[in-house]
Amino acid sequence: MHALIFDIDGTFADTERDGHRVAFNLAFREAGLDWRWDEVLYGELLRVAGGRERLLHWMRRILPDDLLDGAAREDVARQLHAAKTRHYVELVARGCVALRPGIARLVEEARTAGLRLAIATTTSRANVEALLAHTLGPQAVDWFAAIACGEDAPAKKPDPGVYACVLRALGLAAGQCLALEDSGPGLAAARAAGVPTVVTRNPYTHDHVFEGALAVVDALGDGAGAPCVGLDELRRWHAAARPDGAFLLH
Ligand code: XBP
Ligand code: MG
C-alpha cells in the first residue's frame, strides 16, 4: 500500500446536508426562484452524481420542455451551479463544514508513514481547495500528490474516470493504492478502476449496496463510540484483498 485516495463528499467531510444542499438553496433564492431542497428531497437527488447534473435532473423533473429547451436549461443550470459553488466556498470559509472524525488523524498518520495522499472526487476543484484550506490549513493542498476533481473527469462516479486520472498522476498501479469512499457510486468507481476500497458510511448512504468493499464501517474516527480505524487496520485490510481488489470483511 503506497497511497491513500480519499473521496471528499461524505468521506472526508459531511459536506452534503449543511454545505452543498444549503449552497444550492442560497443560489436558488439569489436567482429569485422558490425552489427549496429539504434534507429528504436532497437525499433522493443525491442519486444523481455531480451538482450541475443534479440540478439538470431537477429541472427536467419540474419544468416542462416547452418552457425551457435543452440549451436554455443547460445555460441556467451552469449559471446556478456557478453561484452555488460561490456560496459553498463561503460556507466552508465560515466553518459550516467539518471533517469527519478520524480524517485529520489518518492524514497525519499517512504523512508520517511516508504514504502518498490523493483525492478522487466528483465535486469542483474550488470546493476541494476551500475545504482543505479551512479544515487542515492553507498548506494542506500541497500534501496531496494528486487531486482529481469534477473538471478532470467529466463522466461522474460511478464512472471510474476520476480514479484513472489519479492513478495516472500518481504513477501507481491500482492495487498499490487504497480508496476511501462513502457511497455505492463511489465504491463502484474505485472498484471499476481496480482500486481496493474501504467504505465509511454516512446517514445519506447507509442503505447503499457495498459489495466488493474491503471493509464497511460507520466511521473512521473516534466520535460517538465508533471504532477507530488507523493505518494498521487499513494495511491489514489491503493485504487481505483478493487479486481483483475485493474482499468483504464486514
Ligand atoms: C459528490 C457529488 C458532488 C457534490 C456537489 O459525489 O456528487 O456533486 O454533491 O458538488 P462523490 P458539485 O462524493 O461521489 O464524489 O456541485 O461541485 O458537483
Ligand atoms: Mg462521496
TrEMBL record:
SUPFAM superfamilies: HAD-like (SSF56784). It holds the Pfam family Hydrolase. It comes from Coralloluteibacterium stylophorae. This is HAD-IA family hydrolase. The keyword Hydrolase applies. InterPro entries: CbbY-like, HAD-like_sf, HAD-SF_hydro_IA, HAD_sf, PGP-like_dom2. One of its GO terms (molecular function) is hydrolase activity. Keywords: Hydrolase.
